[in-house]
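Dear colleagues,

For the upcoming journal club I promised to circulate an example of a predicted protein-ligand complex. I picked one with 1-deoxynojirimycin because it came up in last month's discussion. The inputs are reproduced below in full, followed by the predicted structure.
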Amino acid sequence: MKVLVLVFSLFYVGLADDEINSRYFPKNFKFGVANAAPQIEGGWNEDGKTESIWDHFVHTHPEKIVDRSTLDIACDSYHKYKEDVAMVKAMGLDYYRLSIAWARILPTGYPDKVNQAGVRYYKNLFAELKAVNVEPMVTLYHWDLPQTLEDQLGGWLNETVADLFAEYARLCFELFKDDVKMWITINEPKQVCQAGYGTGYLAPGVVSNGVGEYICARNVILAHAKAYHIYDDEFRATNQGRIAMVIDTSWSEPGSDSEEDQEAAERMLQFTFGLYANPIFIGNWPQVVIDRVAQRSELEGFTSSRLPPFTDEEIAYVKGTYDYLALNHYFTHMANATADSPIGDPSYGNDVSVSTWRRPEWPRGAAEYFSVVPWGLRHLLVWLKKTYGDVEIVITENGLSDNTGIMEDDHRISYFQGYLSACLDAIYEDGVNLSTYTAWSIIDDFEWENGYTFFLGMYYVNFTDPERTRIPRKSASWFTNMVATRCLVDACTE
Ligand code: NOJ
Protein backbone atom coordinates (compact mmCIF):
# COMPACT_ATOMS: atom_id res chain seq x y z
CA MET A 1 0.00 0.00 0.00
CA LYS A 2 2.84 2.36 0.92
CA VAL A 3 4.39 1.85 -2.51
CA LEU A 4 1.10 2.62 -4.17
CA VAL A 5 0.72 5.82 -2.19
CA LEU A 6 4.27 6.82 -3.07
CA VAL A 7 3.65 6.23 -6.75
CA PHE A 8 0.45 8.24 -6.49
CA SER A 9 2.27 11.11 -4.77
CA LEU A 10 5.20 11.17 -7.17
CA PHE A 11 2.87 11.10 -10.12
CA TYR A 12 0.75 13.86 -8.80
CA VAL A 13 3.58 16.07 -7.55
CA GLY A 14 5.19 15.73 -10.97
CA LEU A 15 1.95 16.56 -12.69
CA ALA A 16 1.35 19.66 -10.62
CA ASP A 17 4.93 20.90 -10.26
CA ASP A 18 5.28 23.16 -13.24
CA GLU A 19 1.74 24.41 -12.94
CA ILE A 20 1.96 25.85 -9.43
CA ASN A 21 1.28 29.56 -9.39
CA SER A 22 4.13 31.48 -7.75
CA ARG A 23 2.27 34.70 -6.89
CA TYR A 24 1.55 35.58 -3.28
CA PHE A 25 -2.05 35.34 -2.11
CA PRO A 26 -3.52 38.84 -1.91
CA LYS A 27 -2.98 40.54 1.47
CA ASN A 28 -6.64 40.46 2.46
CA PHE A 29 -7.18 36.82 1.36
CA LYS A 30 -8.41 34.67 4.25
CA PHE A 31 -7.68 31.06 5.17
CA GLY A 32 -9.68 28.74 7.38
CA VAL A 33 -10.49 25.13 8.13
CA ALA A 34 -13.91 23.54 8.48
CA ASN A 35 -15.84 20.92 10.32
CA ALA A 36 -19.41 20.29 11.44
CA ALA A 37 -21.15 19.45 14.71
CA PRO A 38 -22.50 15.99 13.84
CA GLN A 39 -19.15 14.88 12.48
CA ILE A 40 -16.96 15.85 15.43
CA GLU A 41 -18.91 16.75 18.57
CA GLY A 42 -20.17 13.43 19.89
CA GLY A 43 -22.10 13.97 23.15
CA TRP A 44 -25.12 12.95 21.10
CA ASN A 45 -27.48 12.80 24.11
CA GLU A 46 -25.56 14.81 26.66
CA ASP A 47 -26.82 17.75 28.70
CA GLY A 48 -30.25 17.77 27.10
CA LYS A 49 -29.38 17.23 23.45
CA THR A 50 -31.84 14.99 21.62
CA GLU A 51 -31.48 12.71 18.62
CA SER A 52 -30.87 14.24 15.22
CA ILE A 53 -31.86 12.44 12.01
CA TRP A 54 -28.24 11.30 11.76
CA ASP A 55 -28.15 9.89 15.29
CA HIS A 56 -31.39 8.11 14.53
CA PHE A 57 -30.24 6.85 11.13
CA VAL A 58 -27.07 5.22 12.49
CA HIS A 59 -28.85 3.84 15.55
CA THR A 60 -31.69 2.26 13.60
CA HIS A 61 -29.85 1.37 10.38
CA PRO A 62 -26.26 0.50 11.25
CA GLU A 63 -25.99 -1.36 7.95
CA LYS A 64 -26.18 1.93 6.07
CA ILE A 65 -22.76 2.97 7.40
CA VAL A 66 -19.88 1.01 5.90
CA ASP A 67 -18.15 0.33 9.23
CA ARG A 68 -21.42 0.31 11.21
CA SER A 69 -20.10 3.19 13.30
CA THR A 70 -22.02 5.95 15.06
CA LEU A 71 -21.66 9.65 15.82
CA ASP A 72 -22.11 9.00 19.53
CA ILE A 73 -18.59 10.07 20.45
CA ALA A 74 -16.97 10.98 17.11
CA CYS A 75 -13.94 13.22 17.89
CA ASP A 76 -15.44 14.04 21.29
CA SER A 77 -15.16 17.73 20.46
CA TYR A 78 -18.05 18.37 22.85
CA HIS A 79 -15.43 17.84 25.55
CA LYS A 80 -12.25 18.52 23.62
CA TYR A 81 -13.12 21.72 21.78
CA LYS A 82 -10.25 23.55 23.48
CA GLU A 83 -7.81 21.20 21.78
CA ASP A 84 -9.46 21.88 18.42
CA VAL A 85 -9.16 25.62 18.94
CA ALA A 86 -5.51 25.26 19.96
CA MET A 87 -4.86 23.41 16.69
CA VAL A 88 -6.59 26.13 14.67
CA LYS A 89 -4.53 28.77 16.45
CA ALA A 90 -1.30 26.83 15.85
CA MET A 91 -2.07 26.86 12.13
CA GLY A 92 -2.35 30.65 12.10
CA LEU A 93 -5.79 30.66 10.52
CA ASP A 94 -8.22 33.53 10.14
CA TYR A 95 -11.39 31.43 10.40
CA TYR A 96 -12.74 28.27 11.97
CA ARG A 97 -15.85 26.98 10.22
CA LEU A 98 -18.09 24.98 12.55
CA SER A 99 -21.78 24.23 12.88
CA ILE A 100 -24.40 24.49 15.59
CA ALA A 101 -26.47 21.39 16.34
CA TRP A 102 -30.16 22.39 16.22
CA ALA A 103 -31.10 19.57 18.64
CA ARG A 104 -28.52 20.79 21.17
CA ILE A 105 -30.07 24.27 21.26
CA LEU A 106 -33.74 23.29 20.80
CA PRO A 107 -34.19 19.68 21.93
CA THR A 108 -37.78 19.47 20.69
CA GLY A 109 -36.89 21.11 17.37
CA TYR A 110 -39.53 23.75 18.15
CA PRO A 111 -38.65 27.10 19.69
CA ASP A 112 -40.37 26.20 22.97
CA LYS A 113 -37.48 25.17 25.23
CA VAL A 114 -33.97 26.53 24.92
CA ASN A 115 -31.33 24.15 26.25
CA GLN A 116 -29.03 26.39 28.27
CA ALA A 117 -26.30 23.74 28.47
CA GLY A 118 -26.17 23.64 24.68
CA VAL A 119 -26.03 27.43 24.49
CA ARG A 120 -23.19 27.42 27.03
CA TYR A 121 -21.20 24.92 24.98
CA TYR A 122 -21.19 27.19 21.92
CA LYS A 123 -20.64 30.33 24.02
CA ASN A 124 -17.54 28.68 25.51
CA LEU A 125 -16.33 27.60 22.10
CA PHE A 126 -16.74 31.13 20.71
CA ALA A 127 -14.98 32.61 23.75
CA GLU A 128 -12.08 30.22 23.22
CA LEU A 129 -11.83 31.29 19.56
CA LYS A 130 -12.01 34.96 20.50
CA ALA A 131 -9.20 34.52 23.00
CA VAL A 132 -6.90 33.38 20.20
CA ASN A 133 -8.22 35.88 17.68
CA VAL A 134 -9.80 33.38 15.27
CA GLU A 135 -13.15 34.24 13.72
CA PRO A 136 -15.94 31.66 13.76
CA MET A 137 -17.75 30.96 10.49
CA VAL A 138 -20.96 29.35 11.65
CA THR A 139 -23.28 26.99 9.78
CA LEU A 140 -26.77 26.78 11.26
CA TYR A 141 -27.71 23.54 9.53
CA HIS A 142 -25.19 20.86 8.60
CA TRP A 143 -27.64 17.99 7.91
CA ASP A 144 -28.67 17.28 11.53
CA LEU A 145 -32.41 17.95 11.70
CA PRO A 146 -33.94 17.18 15.12
CA GLN A 147 -35.52 13.74 14.74
CA THR A 148 -38.78 15.04 16.26
CA LEU A 149 -39.33 17.17 13.16
CA GLU A 150 -38.78 14.19 10.89
CA ASP A 151 -41.11 11.97 12.94
CA GLN A 152 -43.86 14.51 13.44
CA LEU A 153 -43.72 16.60 10.27
CA GLY A 154 -41.88 14.60 7.62
CA GLY A 155 -38.77 16.74 7.83
CA TRP A 156 -37.79 18.82 4.83
CA LEU A 157 -40.77 17.58 2.82
CA ASN A 158 -42.95 19.83 4.96
CA GLU A 159 -42.86 23.60 4.45
CA THR A 160 -43.52 24.10 8.18
CA VAL A 161 -39.95 22.94 8.77
CA ALA A 162 -38.77 25.99 6.82
CA ASP A 163 -40.60 28.20 9.34
CA LEU A 164 -39.15 26.24 12.25
CA PHE A 165 -35.67 26.60 10.79
CA ALA A 166 -36.23 30.36 10.57
CA GLU A 167 -37.24 30.42 14.27
CA TYR A 168 -34.14 28.45 15.20
CA ALA A 169 -32.00 30.80 13.10
CA ARG A 170 -33.52 33.87 14.78
CA LEU A 171 -32.71 32.39 18.18
CA CYS A 172 -29.08 31.73 17.16
CA PHE A 173 -28.70 35.25 15.72
CA GLU A 174 -29.92 36.60 19.07
CA LEU A 175 -27.95 34.23 21.31
CA PHE A 176 -24.66 34.61 19.46
CA LYS A 177 -24.95 38.16 18.14
CA ASP A 178 -21.82 39.21 20.02
CA ASP A 179 -19.84 36.14 18.96
CA VAL A 180 -20.49 35.49 15.27
CA LYS A 181 -20.34 37.68 12.17
CA MET A 182 -19.95 35.15 9.38
CA TRP A 183 -23.13 33.10 9.05
CA ILE A 184 -24.10 30.19 6.82
CA THR A 185 -27.73 29.11 6.75
CA ILE A 186 -27.63 25.61 5.25
CA ASN A 187 -24.80 23.36 4.10
CA GLU A 188 -25.02 21.55 0.75
CA PRO A 189 -28.77 21.49 0.10
CA LYS A 190 -28.12 19.11 -2.79
CA GLN A 191 -27.00 16.40 -0.37
CA VAL A 192 -29.75 17.24 2.11
CA CYS A 193 -32.36 16.79 -0.61
CA GLN A 194 -31.06 14.38 -3.23
CA ALA A 195 -29.39 11.97 -0.84
CA GLY A 196 -31.78 12.52 2.09
CA TYR A 197 -35.13 12.58 0.26
CA GLY A 198 -34.34 11.28 -3.24
CA THR A 199 -32.05 8.26 -3.35
CA GLY A 200 -32.20 7.94 0.43
CA TYR A 201 -28.63 6.87 1.07
CA LEU A 202 -28.12 9.64 3.64
CA ALA A 203 -30.34 10.46 6.63
CA PRO A 204 -33.26 10.43 6.98
CA GLY A 205 -33.11 7.82 4.21
CA VAL A 206 -36.36 8.72 2.44
CA VAL A 207 -36.49 7.21 -1.06
CA SER A 208 -38.50 9.47 -3.34
CA ASN A 209 -36.47 9.80 -6.49
CA GLY A 210 -37.50 12.66 -8.75
CA VAL A 211 -40.23 13.84 -6.41
CA GLY A 212 -39.10 14.24 -2.78
CA GLU A 213 -35.82 15.91 -3.66
CA TYR A 214 -37.56 18.75 -5.54
CA ILE A 215 -40.09 19.32 -2.75
CA CYS A 216 -37.19 19.36 -0.31
CA ALA A 217 -35.23 21.77 -2.53
CA ARG A 218 -38.08 24.26 -2.51
CA ASN A 219 -38.48 24.07 1.28
CA VAL A 220 -34.77 24.34 1.96
CA ILE A 221 -34.49 27.40 -0.29
CA LEU A 222 -37.46 29.03 1.44
CA ALA A 223 -35.93 28.19 4.83
CA HIS A 224 -32.70 29.87 3.78
CA ALA A 225 -34.54 32.94 2.49
CA LYS A 226 -36.62 33.28 5.66
CA ALA A 227 -33.48 33.14 7.80
CA TYR A 228 -31.76 35.66 5.52
CA HIS A 229 -34.64 38.13 5.81
CA ILE A 230 -34.80 37.77 9.59
CA TYR A 231 -31.09 38.49 9.72
CA ASP A 232 -31.46 41.40 7.33
CA ASP A 233 -34.44 42.98 9.10
CA GLU A 234 -33.60 42.36 12.74
CA PHE A 235 -29.87 41.78 13.17
CA ARG A 236 -27.77 43.11 10.32
CA ALA A 237 -27.62 46.68 11.58
CA THR A 238 -26.20 45.71 14.95
CA ASN A 239 -24.41 42.44 14.16
CA GLN A 240 -22.82 43.87 11.00
CA GLY A 241 -22.07 40.39 9.72
CA ARG A 242 -22.78 38.47 6.53
CA ILE A 243 -24.87 35.48 5.59
CA ALA A 244 -25.21 33.02 2.70
CA MET A 245 -26.09 29.41 1.86
CA VAL A 246 -23.30 26.94 1.05
CA ILE A 247 -23.89 25.18 -2.28
CA ASP A 248 -21.69 22.36 -3.52
CA THR A 249 -20.86 21.14 -6.96
CA SER A 250 -18.23 19.24 -8.83
CA TRP A 251 -17.08 20.68 -12.15
CA SER A 252 -18.63 19.20 -15.32
CA GLU A 253 -16.23 19.32 -18.24
CA PRO A 254 -17.83 18.64 -21.64
CA GLY A 255 -16.90 15.12 -22.76
CA SER A 256 -16.32 16.32 -26.34
CA ASP A 257 -16.55 19.45 -28.49
CA SER A 258 -20.00 18.48 -29.75
CA GLU A 259 -22.86 20.86 -29.06
CA GLU A 260 -24.77 18.07 -27.28
CA ASP A 261 -21.95 17.43 -24.84
CA GLN A 262 -21.36 21.15 -24.21
CA GLU A 263 -25.05 21.45 -23.42
CA ALA A 264 -24.95 18.32 -21.29
CA ALA A 265 -22.14 19.71 -19.11
CA GLU A 266 -24.02 22.98 -18.66
CA ARG A 267 -27.26 21.09 -17.93
CA MET A 268 -25.50 19.05 -15.26
CA LEU A 269 -24.27 22.23 -13.57
CA GLN A 270 -27.76 23.70 -13.71
CA PHE A 271 -29.32 20.58 -12.16
CA THR A 272 -26.72 20.47 -9.37
CA PHE A 273 -25.60 24.02 -8.59
CA GLY A 274 -28.18 26.09 -10.46
CA LEU A 275 -31.12 24.31 -8.86
CA TYR A 276 -30.15 25.97 -5.57
CA ALA A 277 -28.21 29.02 -6.74
CA ASN A 278 -30.53 30.38 -9.45
CA PRO A 279 -33.44 31.13 -7.12
CA ILE A 280 -31.05 33.04 -4.85
CA PHE A 281 -28.79 34.81 -7.35
CA ILE A 282 -30.99 35.16 -10.43
CA GLY A 283 -34.58 34.41 -9.41
CA ASN A 284 -36.57 31.18 -9.91
CA TRP A 285 -35.38 27.68 -10.90
CA PRO A 286 -33.09 27.38 -13.93
CA GLN A 287 -35.17 27.32 -17.11
CA VAL A 288 -33.63 24.06 -18.32
CA VAL A 289 -34.70 22.36 -15.07
CA ILE A 290 -38.21 23.82 -15.29
CA ASP A 291 -38.58 22.63 -18.90
CA ARG A 292 -37.16 19.15 -18.55
CA VAL A 293 -38.95 18.19 -15.34
CA ALA A 294 -42.26 19.56 -16.64
CA GLN A 295 -41.91 17.69 -19.92
CA ARG A 296 -41.09 14.33 -18.35
CA SER A 297 -43.69 14.76 -15.60
CA GLU A 298 -46.39 15.22 -18.21
CA LEU A 299 -45.30 12.15 -20.16
CA GLU A 300 -45.23 10.16 -16.91
CA GLY A 301 -48.88 11.09 -16.27
CA PHE A 302 -48.42 13.70 -13.54
CA THR A 303 -50.99 16.48 -13.66
CA SER A 304 -48.39 19.10 -12.78
CA SER A 305 -44.61 19.24 -12.78
CA ARG A 306 -42.75 17.26 -10.14
CA LEU A 307 -40.74 20.45 -9.66
CA PRO A 308 -42.98 22.55 -7.40
CA PRO A 309 -43.14 26.13 -8.67
CA PHE A 310 -42.33 29.25 -6.71
CA THR A 311 -45.01 31.95 -6.78
CA ASP A 312 -44.01 35.36 -8.17
CA GLU A 313 -43.98 36.63 -4.62
CA GLU A 314 -41.66 33.83 -3.53
CA ILE A 315 -39.34 34.41 -6.47
CA ALA A 316 -38.93 38.03 -5.43
CA TYR A 317 -38.57 37.06 -1.76
CA VAL A 318 -35.78 34.54 -2.42
CA LYS A 319 -33.90 36.53 -5.06
CA GLY A 320 -30.96 38.45 -3.62
CA THR A 321 -30.75 36.56 -0.33
CA TYR A 322 -26.95 36.41 -0.27
CA ASP A 323 -24.05 38.48 0.96
CA TYR A 324 -21.47 36.27 -0.77
CA LEU A 325 -21.38 33.03 -2.75
CA ALA A 326 -20.29 30.08 -0.58
CA LEU A 327 -18.90 27.10 -2.48
CA ASN A 328 -17.98 23.54 -1.52
CA HIS A 329 -15.97 21.79 -4.22
CA TYR A 330 -13.94 18.58 -4.32
CA PHE A 331 -13.68 16.98 -7.77
CA THR A 332 -14.38 17.04 -11.51
CA HIS A 333 -16.00 14.74 -14.05
CA MET A 334 -16.48 14.68 -17.80
CA ALA A 335 -20.06 14.99 -19.00
CA ASN A 336 -21.74 13.53 -22.09
CA ALA A 337 -25.32 13.80 -23.28
CA THR A 338 -27.28 10.56 -23.15
CA ALA A 339 -30.39 9.66 -25.07
CA ASP A 340 -33.50 10.38 -23.02
CA SER A 341 -34.47 7.33 -20.98
CA PRO A 342 -37.82 5.72 -21.74
CA ILE A 343 -40.66 7.12 -19.70
CA GLY A 344 -41.20 5.12 -16.52
CA ASP A 345 -40.79 5.87 -12.84
CA PRO A 346 -39.79 9.44 -12.05
CA SER A 347 -36.07 9.88 -11.60
CA TYR A 348 -33.80 12.86 -11.08
CA GLY A 349 -31.08 11.09 -13.09
CA ASN A 350 -33.42 10.73 -16.07
CA ASP A 351 -34.44 14.38 -15.74
CA VAL A 352 -30.79 15.41 -16.08
CA SER A 353 -29.92 12.85 -18.78
CA VAL A 354 -26.14 13.22 -18.61
CA SER A 355 -23.55 10.49 -18.18
CA THR A 356 -20.38 11.27 -16.28
CA TRP A 357 -16.94 9.67 -16.34
CA ARG A 358 -13.40 10.33 -15.14
CA ARG A 359 -10.22 10.27 -17.16
CA PRO A 360 -8.20 7.22 -16.11
CA GLU A 361 -5.03 9.26 -15.63
CA TRP A 362 -6.64 11.51 -13.02
CA PRO A 363 -5.45 10.63 -9.51
CA ARG A 364 -8.21 9.48 -7.16
CA GLY A 365 -9.10 10.02 -3.52
CA ALA A 366 -10.85 7.49 -1.31
CA ALA A 367 -13.44 6.63 -3.94
CA GLU A 368 -13.45 6.16 -7.70
CA TYR A 369 -15.55 9.31 -8.16
CA PHE A 370 -13.06 11.42 -6.20
CA SER A 371 -10.89 12.66 -9.07
CA VAL A 372 -8.13 15.13 -8.38
CA VAL A 373 -8.33 17.82 -11.07
CA PRO A 374 -7.17 21.25 -9.86
CA TRP A 375 -7.99 23.00 -13.15
CA GLY A 376 -11.61 21.91 -12.64
CA LEU A 377 -11.82 24.36 -9.74
CA ARG A 378 -10.49 27.18 -11.91
CA HIS A 379 -13.03 26.40 -14.65
CA LEU A 380 -15.78 26.31 -12.03
CA LEU A 381 -14.78 29.67 -10.54
CA VAL A 382 -14.79 31.24 -13.99
CA TRP A 383 -18.20 29.67 -14.73
CA LEU A 384 -19.57 31.06 -11.46
CA LYS A 385 -18.41 34.54 -12.39
CA LYS A 386 -19.89 34.25 -15.85
CA THR A 387 -23.19 32.83 -14.58
CA TYR A 388 -23.80 34.80 -11.39
CA GLY A 389 -21.78 37.98 -11.91
CA ASP A 390 -18.86 39.45 -10.04
CA VAL A 391 -20.01 38.27 -6.63
CA GLU A 392 -17.51 37.61 -3.82
CA ILE A 393 -16.78 33.89 -3.66
CA VAL A 394 -15.90 32.14 -0.41
CA ILE A 395 -14.67 28.56 -0.72
CA THR A 396 -16.18 26.94 2.34
CA GLU A 397 -14.84 23.40 1.72
CA ASN A 398 -12.13 21.75 -0.36
CA GLY A 399 -9.87 18.85 0.54
CA LEU A 400 -8.76 15.32 -0.23
CA SER A 401 -10.21 12.11 1.16
CA ASP A 402 -8.13 8.95 1.32
CA ASN A 403 -8.75 5.55 2.82
CA THR A 404 -5.29 4.93 4.21
CA GLY A 405 -5.13 7.65 6.86
CA ILE A 406 -1.38 7.74 6.19
CA MET A 407 0.53 10.33 8.24
CA GLU A 408 3.03 11.27 5.50
CA ASP A 409 0.19 12.60 3.38
CA ASP A 410 2.12 14.07 0.46
CA HIS A 411 -0.86 13.40 -1.78
CA ARG A 412 -2.93 15.76 0.39
CA ILE A 413 -0.23 18.42 0.21
CA SER A 414 -0.20 18.07 -3.58
CA TYR A 415 -3.98 18.35 -3.64
CA PHE A 416 -3.95 21.56 -1.59
CA GLN A 417 -1.07 22.96 -3.59
CA GLY A 418 -2.81 22.24 -6.90
CA TYR A 419 -6.23 23.52 -5.84
CA LEU A 420 -4.82 26.62 -4.16
CA SER A 421 -2.79 27.29 -7.29
CA ALA A 422 -6.04 27.10 -9.28
CA CYS A 423 -7.42 29.73 -6.88
CA LEU A 424 -4.48 32.02 -7.62
CA ASP A 425 -4.94 31.49 -11.36
CA ALA A 426 -8.60 32.41 -11.04
CA ILE A 427 -7.81 35.52 -8.99
CA TYR A 428 -4.90 36.86 -11.04
CA GLU A 429 -5.57 35.54 -14.55
CA ASP A 430 -9.36 35.48 -14.64
CA GLY A 431 -10.26 38.30 -12.27
CA VAL A 432 -12.48 36.11 -10.09
CA ASN A 433 -13.50 37.82 -6.85
CA LEU A 434 -12.35 35.00 -4.56
CA SER A 435 -11.70 36.13 -0.99
CA THR A 436 -11.43 33.02 1.18
CA TYR A 437 -10.29 29.41 1.14
CA THR A 438 -11.47 26.92 3.75
CA ALA A 439 -9.93 23.46 3.89
CA TRP A 440 -11.92 20.39 4.86
CA SER A 441 -10.83 19.24 7.32
CA ILE A 442 -8.82 20.14 10.37
CA ILE A 443 -9.33 16.63 11.84
CA ASP A 444 -10.50 13.20 10.74
CA ASP A 445 -14.18 12.86 11.47
CA PHE A 446 -17.37 10.88 10.94
CA GLU A 447 -17.70 10.88 7.15
CA TRP A 448 -21.42 10.07 6.91
CA GLU A 449 -22.14 6.79 5.10
CA ASN A 450 -18.39 6.08 5.07
CA GLY A 451 -18.16 6.29 8.86
CA TYR A 452 -14.54 6.42 9.97
CA THR A 453 -13.11 4.84 6.79
CA PHE A 454 -12.53 8.06 4.81
CA PHE A 455 -9.84 10.40 6.11
CA LEU A 456 -9.70 14.09 5.26
CA GLY A 457 -8.00 15.53 8.33
CA MET A 458 -4.76 17.41 8.51
CA TYR A 459 -4.77 15.96 12.01
CA TYR A 460 -5.18 12.24 12.55
CA VAL A 461 -7.61 11.20 15.27
CA ASN A 462 -7.24 7.85 16.97
CA PHE A 463 -10.86 6.69 17.17
CA THR A 464 -10.01 3.62 19.24
CA ASP A 465 -8.38 5.71 21.95
CA PRO A 466 -10.86 7.02 24.54
CA GLU A 467 -8.80 10.22 24.60
CA ARG A 468 -9.35 10.68 20.86
CA THR A 469 -5.78 11.92 20.59
CA ARG A 470 -5.15 14.32 17.70
CA ILE A 471 -1.79 14.07 15.93
CA PRO A 472 -0.69 16.36 13.08
CA ARG A 473 -0.10 14.81 9.68
CA LYS A 474 2.56 16.16 7.35
CA SER A 475 -0.09 18.29 5.60
CA ALA A 476 -0.75 20.24 8.83
CA SER A 477 2.74 21.70 8.84
CA TRP A 478 2.64 22.31 5.08
CA PHE A 479 -0.66 24.19 5.42
CA THR A 480 0.61 26.15 8.43
CA ASN A 481 3.67 27.24 6.49
CA MET A 482 1.55 28.11 3.45
CA VAL A 483 -0.71 30.34 5.56
CA ALA A 484 2.32 32.05 7.13
CA THR A 485 4.11 32.67 3.83
CA ARG A 486 0.93 33.08 1.73
CA CYS A 487 2.90 31.31 -0.98
CA LEU A 488 2.71 27.83 -2.58
CA VAL A 489 6.30 27.49 -3.76
CA ASP A 490 9.74 28.15 -2.32
CA ALA A 491 9.82 31.78 -3.40
CA CYS A 492 6.89 33.90 -4.55
CA THR A 493 6.51 37.16 -6.43
CA GLU A 494 3.99 39.96 -5.77
C1 NOJ B 1 -19.13 17.92 2.22
C2 NOJ B 1 -19.84 17.99 3.52
O1 NOJ B 1 -20.30 19.29 3.76
C3 NOJ B 1 -19.03 17.50 4.69
O2 NOJ B 1 -19.89 17.28 5.74
C4 NOJ B 1 -18.26 16.27 4.28
O3 NOJ B 1 -17.69 15.61 5.31
C5 NOJ B 1 -17.27 16.68 3.23
N1 NOJ B 1 -18.05 17.02 2.06
C6 NOJ B 1 -16.22 15.65 2.85
O4 NOJ B 1 -16.78 14.50 2.37
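Two points we might discuss: Residues 387 and 424 are 20 Å apart (CA to CA). The longest helix spans residues 212-239.

See you all on Thursday,
B. R.
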